[in-house]
Amino acid sequence: MIGAIIGDIVGSIYKYDNLKNKNFEFFKKESTFTDGTVMTVAIADFILSDSIPSQARLVGYFHAWFEKYPNKSYGNSFKKWMESFNNVYYTDFIPYNSYGNGAAMRISPIGDFSKVIEQAMKRVEFVTSVSHNHPEGVTGAQAIAALIVMARTEKDKTKLREFVETKFKYNLNNSVDFLRVNYKYNETCQDTVPEAIICFLESVDFEDAIRNAISIGGDSSTLANITGSIAEAYYHEIPEWIIKETLSKLPLDIINVINNFYREVSYEYHEIAGKIKELR
C-alpha cells in the first residue's frame, strides 16, 4: 500500500509533463498525493473499519474520502459517479462499466491483506465491480492483487511473468526501453497494467521500479502507483528516506489509516511497518 502511495506522489508532477529518462528528482516541493492515494486509503479504511462488509458500505467509504479530498485529479466518469451520491443512497449505486486504470491503482490493500491468490481474486471482484464492472477493469485489478500476493514469497521473476501471462493473458514482451520510446498516455487497465508490471520486472530495487515507471511517460502517477505496489511486496524494502518524505506530504487522517493498516499486516511487511510506526 505505501509503495502505491509513494508511486502516486512521485508521479504526480510528471502525469501531464512526461519524462523519458530515469534521472529525475524523486520528490519535489510540488509533489503531492492524487486520487490514487485517496481511493487506496478508502479501501484500506473499509477493510479496517467495516465488520459487516457490503458493497453499499464500500461505496460510502469511497464517497466519504472523496468528499474529504474532492480536487485530486479524479477521472471525469468517477467524479460524476461520486457526485451522484449527494442525492442518491449508497444502496442505490449503479456501476458505470469502467475499464479505467483506477481499478488497479487503488487495489493494493486487497493484495496486502489477502493471504492467498484465490482470496485476493474474490475480494478484488467484490470491491472493483461497484464501479469498474467491465471485465477489463476487474481483470486489471485482479492481476495486480494476485501478483502482490505471489510476489511476497516468489522471488523468481520469470515465474511471476509466466503467471501473469498465463492467468491474465497480458503481453509482457515489451521492454522498458521500448516503452520509453513508444508508449503513449492511456487511462485504461489493458494499456496500463501490463506496462506497470514490466517496469517492476525490469527493476533492481524499489526505487528503480518507480524510476522505470516514471521514465516511460503516460499516466505517470497511476503507472508508478501500480508498479510501486508490486515492488513493495517483492522487495520487502523501501529506503527510510523515501517513507519519511512520503509521510511528510500526507495529512494526518491518511497517515493514521496507513499506520493502522500496517499494524494489521505487519506479519507480512514487518520492516516497512516498523519504519512507518517510527516515522509517522
TrEMBL record:
Protein name per the record: ADP-ribosylglycohydrolase
GO molecular function per UniProt: hydrolase activity; metal ion binding
Source organism (scientific name): Flavobacterium frigoris
Names of required cofactors: Mg(2+)
SUPFAM superfamilies with a match to the protein in the record: ADP-ribosylglycohydrolase (SSF101478)
Superkingdom of the source species: Bacteria
Xref: InterPro entries: ADP-ribosylglycohydrolase (IPR050792), Ribosyl_crysJ1 (IPR005502), Ribosyl_crysJ1_sf (IPR036705)
Cofactor descriptive note: Binds 2 magnesium ions per subunit.
Binding site for Mg(2+): T34, D35, D219, T222
Keywords (A to Z) from UniProt: Hydrolase, Magnesium, Metal-binding
